[in-house]
Automatic annotation (TrEMBL):
Species lineage: Bacteria, Bacillati, Actinomycetota, Actinomycetes, Mycobacteriales
Database matches in InterPro entries: NAD(P)-bd_dom_sf (IPR036291), SDR_fam (IPR002347), SDR_subfam_1 (IPR023985)
Pfam families listed in its UniProt record: adh_short (PF00106)
Molecular-function GO terms, alphabetical: oxidoreductase activity
Organism: Mycobacterium parmense
Name recorded for this polypeptide: Short-chain dehydrogenase/reductase
Length: 273
C-alpha cells in the first residue's frame, strides 16, 4: 500500500525534468497522474522545450510504476485549453487530490534589456501559468471534498534578488518566481476552509534540460554570474530533480498534514548568502 493510493495528481510541465521526476515518484506511491505539457517550443524562449515523445515517455514510466496516467497537451498560458486538458484527465481518473504547478521557462544568458517578448513569455508561463493551473485544477479538489495539497514550484530566485543582471530575462524570472510566493500565500488562505494546503518549493539550478542546454550553458560561459549558482554547501553546482521531488513528496503526503503557506528551499544554501 502506498501513502498516496487512490489519489489523483495534476502535474504541469510533466514531460521531462522535474515534472517527470515528480510524476513517477507520486505514481510509485500510489497516485494516478494527469500529466500536462505544452510539447512545443515557445518562440521567445531560446532553447528546445519538451516534445510529445517526452510526454509519452513520462506516461510509460508512470504505467510501469503500476498507475494510470492521462497525458494531455496544453500550454499553461492558455486557460481554456488547460481547463479542457485537466477535465480530460478528470473524466478518466476522477477528481483531483494533488496539484503540482511545475511548468516554467528561463532564458539565462540572454543579455537583452528591452526583450519584451522574452519578458512576456517568462512571466506568462511562470506566473500566469501557475494561476491558470490553480483555476483549472483546484475546483476539482474542492468538489471531491476530502482536502488536498497544492505545490507551486518556484525557485531560489523567488526568495532572493541575487543574480540579477539587468536583463529582461532575469528581471522576468525573478519577478515571476517571487510572484508565485504571493499566489501561494493567497491561495493558502483562500483554500484553507476546504482543507487544501498550499506550499511552494524553491530549487536553485536543477540538472534538467531547462539548464543543461547549449543556449544557457554557452550564455553562462560567456557572461559568468557566480551569484546565480553560488551555494553554501561545497561541490553542489546543481541539485538533482530527485532532490526537489523529495520535498514535493513530503508536501503532498500525510507527514505534512498541518503544513501550509510555507516556502521550502532546495538549494544547497543559495538563499542564505
Amino acid at each position: 500500500m502506498g501513502e498516496l493510493d487512490d489519489s489523483v495528481a495534476v502535474i504541469t510541465g510533466a514531460a521531462r525534468g522535474q515534472g517527470r521526476s515528480h510524476a513517477v515518484a507520486l505514481a510509485e506511491r500510489g497516485a494516478d497522474i494527469i500529466a500536462v505539457d505544452c510539447c512545443a517550443d515557445i518562440d521567445a524562449i531560446p532553447y528546445p522545450l519538451a516534445t510529445k515523445d517526452d510526454l509519452d515517455e513520462t506516461a510509460r514510466l508512470v504505467r510501469a510504476a503500476g498507475r494510470r496516467v492521462v497525458p494531455v497537451v496544453a500550454d499553461v498560458r492558455d486557460l481554456a485549453r488547460l481547463e479542457s486538458a485537466v477535465q480530460t484527465g478528470i473524466d478518466e481518473l476522477g477528481d483531483v487530490d494533488i496539484v503540482i504547478a511545475n511548468a516554467g521557462v528561463v532564458a539565462i544568458g540572454d543579455p537583452q534589456t528591452h526583450a519584451v517578448p522574452v519578458f512576456d513569455a517568462i512571466v506568462d508561463t511562470n506566473l500566469k501559468g501557475v494561476w491558470n493551473t490553480l483555476v483549472a485544477a483546484v475546483p476539482s479538489v474542492i468538489r471531491k471534498g476530502r482536502g488536498g495539497s497544492v505545490v507551486l514550484v518556484s525557485s531560489s530566485q523567488g526568495l532572493t534578488g541575487r543574480g540579477g543582471d539587468g536583463s529582461a530575462a532575469m528581471f522576468a524570472y525573478a519577478a515571476s518566481k517571487h510572484g508565485v510566493v504571493g499566489l501561494m500565500r493567497s491561495a493558502a488562505n483562500a483554500y484553507a476552509p476546504h482543507r487544501i494546503r498550499v506550499n511552494s518549493v524553491h530549487p536553485s539550478g536543477v540538472a534538467t534540460p531547462m539548464i543543461l542546454n547549449d543556449f544557457v550553458v554557452n550564455g553562462m560561459l560567456q557572461n559568468p554570474n557566480p551569484a546565480i549558482s553560488q551555494t553554501l554547501l561545497p561541490d553542489v553546482p546543481l541539485v538533482q530533480p530527485q532532490d526537489v521531488t523529495e520535498a514535493v513528496l513530503w508536501l503532498v503526503g500525510p507527514g505534512s498534514r498541518y503544513v501550509t503557506g510555507v516556502t521550502i528551499p532546495v538549494d544547497a544554501g543559495h538563499v542564505v548568502m
